[in-house]
Design the sequence.
């Protein structure tokens, strides 16, 4: 692919609002996970909750979009001057030439879960204040952001479970490549809800302790929430040395099982190989891998095998989910931004909560932070249904 | 009518169609070109024999629909579905599954079934498609509410243009039960599949081009077909299928995201 510049980017997770909060937590190796106290959920697990979502107010003209997911979307848009950067892009290119590609797995389904507690006892009807279109529907978060900025170009929600927002980057890049748009607002938003907490629990995939990716004794995921965005544009003629570029993307399908990865990581490897091909790079060109690393026994084993097969143990790698929890449909975007921070700051984040690397996986897994000057990083995101996506980011020099 | 230079184009190699009263492309084609009159009937979803037994038991109406139209389009082009990149576009996931999950989560015993949970993701049909066909190429799954058909078509055209590879578009939607049905009244299952290719290979049916423009979608002249178009989001693509059925060059405008619509032009080789 022709490299694209991330001309602005931001992320908000349980580590805090905006990039400085992410940077500080990654540098200090702190985790935002806490015992689950979300809503009325009673499960022995840990979560990564973004503070302050309940206090966010949508503009009155957009009140019909009000739900936890869209509040989180707005909270994150307003960090790091990102919304201003989007408005500036709309000013430069016009509202029809800025595309919108957002990943989400559950959008505002919490709204429906709560409405089902308030059904009319006689008729079973949902309460009159319930709005399906702009809260529950998978497109709702993209619809909200589109209206918020007055965009009139192409827009869609990508919903491939936990690879959603990595695939949103790939989609945005393609729309620019074929000339339909000049800038793409890409990213992902996913918020806590009962479906995912009870659902992952039903699959026995939630950990009773803070998740420990790639640990020999890992016990499953900690569900998190988060939102992260980037503005993709063609690079300026002379991008600054520190400009972060999207260099490649790779997508594949496992064609194996709905909720378990291919045991040898076949699809994971295909996605990583395709991303390297798209970037015109070889495995030796990659300086850090942000792993999908959910901390389920099967995910980390499959991904670890695929990474070892392709990169050997030569490339430092880690999962940042011990810090953020698994932000599901937002994970691809959150972790692409963590890759961008690694490029900018020269800090390779060590995995938090992981004590002893799974001895069956021969990898350079970072248990401590490492400083360096990475030029190119790879970020992996894999989802239910066997949907895989890898992204390659790099500095322009 | 002519499209701007920025229009994207591809060759149609196969078509799939399943909707109330439209049982497959061959039968539907005769109705869409006016040779036979439309008779309303519930959508008849075939059993997904291609799935392994465990997945077949768990396959929802939505999964059966997506498999049926996708396989029909691939078969028409004599293409091996295992080799095809796919774009799945739906305005919602499985409504019955969603309803059952929400009922459980609102009850005193919130223990949901693992199958219900993994069937709740928007890419469920795409996952079953992969298991059924063995397809490992990229698979996109998207939603754009009532603009989902056009969003899927646009995404498929973008992929054909950029990746220079055939792409199978599967646009599909099915109903919610009450009480969500009252807020999202989709009456039945309906889907359209198009196998698109970068070149006019042998057997190509027509070349389609599309571009975004301002304005509203064009309705269908037949009131019954027009009702299908507006009732089931995936069938917002019916005006395009009507032109493909008639076999002569034509143009129409499909619903997308207001204030934008997708202008589409169809040209047949030799005409």
Sequence:
């Amino acid at each position: 692919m022709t490299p694209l510049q991330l001309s602005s980017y931001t992320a908000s997770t349980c580590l805090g609002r905006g990039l400085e909060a992410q940077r500080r937590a990654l540098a200090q190796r702190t985790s935002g996970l806490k015992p689950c106290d979300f809503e009325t959920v009673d499960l022995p697990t840990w979560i990564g909750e973004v503070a302050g979502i309940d206090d966010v107010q949508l503009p009155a003209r957009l009140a019909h979009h009000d739900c936890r997911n869209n509040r989180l979307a707005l909270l994150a848009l307003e960090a790091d001057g990102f919304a201003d950067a989007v408005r500036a892009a709309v000013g430069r290119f016009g509202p029809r030439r800025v595309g919108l590609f957002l990943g989400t797995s559950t959008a505002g389904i919490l709204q429906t879960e709560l409405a089902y507690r308030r059904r009319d006892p006689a008729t079973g009807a949902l309460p009159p204040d319930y709005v399906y279109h702009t809260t529950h529907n998978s497109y709702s978060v993209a619809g909200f952001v589109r209206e918020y900025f007055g965009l009139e170009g192409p827009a869609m929600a990508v919903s491939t479970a936990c690879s959603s927002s990595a695939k949103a980057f790939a989609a945005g890049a393609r729309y620019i490549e074929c000339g339909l748009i000049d800038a793409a607002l890409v990213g992902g938003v996913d918020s806590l809800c009962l479906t995912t907490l009870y659902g992952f629990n039903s699959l026995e995939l939630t950990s009773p302790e803070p998740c420990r990716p790639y640990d020999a004794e890992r016990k499953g995921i900690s569900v998190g929430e988060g939102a992260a965005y980037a503005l993709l544009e063609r690079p300026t003629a002379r991008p600054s040395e520190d400009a972060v570029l999207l260099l490649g993307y790779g997508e594949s399908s496992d064609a194996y099982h709905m909720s378990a990865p291919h045991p040898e990581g076949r699809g994971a490897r295909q996605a990583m190989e395709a991303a390297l091909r798209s970037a015109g790079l070889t495995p030796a060109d990659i300086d850090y891998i942000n792993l999908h690393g959910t901390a389920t026994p099967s995910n980390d084993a499959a991904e670890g095998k695929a990474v070892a097969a392709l990169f050997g143990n030569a490339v430092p790698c880690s999962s940042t989910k011990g810090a953020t929890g698994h932000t599901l449909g937002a994970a691809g975007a959150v972790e692409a931004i963590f890759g961008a921070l690694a490029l900018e700051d020269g800090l390779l984040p060590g995995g938090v909560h992981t004590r002893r690397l799974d001895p069956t996986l021969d990898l350079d897994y970072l248990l401590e932070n490492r400083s360096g000057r990475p030029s190119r990083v790879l970020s992996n995101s894999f989802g239910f249904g066997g949907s895989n996506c890898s992204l390659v980011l790099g500095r322009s020099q | 009518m002519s499209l701007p230079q920025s229009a994207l184009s591809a060759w149609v190699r196969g078509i799939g169609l399943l909707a109330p009263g439209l049982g497959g492309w061959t039968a539907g084609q005769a109705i869409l070109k006016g040779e036979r009159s439309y008779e309303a009937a519930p959508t008849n979803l075939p059993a997904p024999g291609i799935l392994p037994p465990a997945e077949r038991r768990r396959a929802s109406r939505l999964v059966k629909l997506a498999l049926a139209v996708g396989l029909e389009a691939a078969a028409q082009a004599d293409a091996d579905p295992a080799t095809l990149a796919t774009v799945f576009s739906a305005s919602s996931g499985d409504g019955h599954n969603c309803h059952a999950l929400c009922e459980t989560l609102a009850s005193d015993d919130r223990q949901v079934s693992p199958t219900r949970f993994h069937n709740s993701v928007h890419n469920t049909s795409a996952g079953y498609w992969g298991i059924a066909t063995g397809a490992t190429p990229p698979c996109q799954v998207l939603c754009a509410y009532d603009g989902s058909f056009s969003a899927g078509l646009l995404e498929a055209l973008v992929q054909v243009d950029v990746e220079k590879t055939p792409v199978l578009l599967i646009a599909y939607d099915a109903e919610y039960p009450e009480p969500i049905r009252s807020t999202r009244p989709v009456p039945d299952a309906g889907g359209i599949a198009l196998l698109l290719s970068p070149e006019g290979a042998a057997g190509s049916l027509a070349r389609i081009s599309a571009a975004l423009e301002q304005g509203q979608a064009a309705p269908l002249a037949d009131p019954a077909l027009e009702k299908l178009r507006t009732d089931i989001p995936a069938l917002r693509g019916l005006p395009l299928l009507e032109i493909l059925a008639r076999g002569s060059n034509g143009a129409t405008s499909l619903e997308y995201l207001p204030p934008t619509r997708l202008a589409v032009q169809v040209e047949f080789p030799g005409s």
